[in-house]
């Protein structure tokens, strides 16, 4: 898969990453829990925050 990393925002939503990697959102949540692809939490939605992913982490995962 070829992506133009210059067009990607610095932080991606779980939905954006799901689309880029072609995996289900639940898979991304499991990867975060297991440490395969760590997310950061932003905001205060439901007291836990929404997951965001660093562009560089996604690019590294694709490159593997």
UniProtKB/TrEMBL annotation:
InterPro entries: DNA-bd_dom_put_sf, HTH_17, SinI_DNA-bd
Every Helix-turn-helix domain range: 11-63
Any one GO molecular function term: DNA binding
Pfam families named in the record: HTH_17
The protein's name in its UniProt record: Helix-turn-helix domain-containing protein
């Amino acid at each position: 898969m070829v992506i133009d990393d210059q067009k990607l925002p610095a932080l991606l939503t779980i939905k954006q990453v799901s689309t880029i990697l072609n995996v289900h959102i639940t898979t991304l949540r499991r990867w975060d829990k297991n440490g395969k692809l760590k997310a950061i939490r932003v905001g205060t939605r439901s007291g836990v925050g929404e997951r965001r992913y660093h562009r560089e982490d996604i690019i590294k995962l694709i490159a593997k």
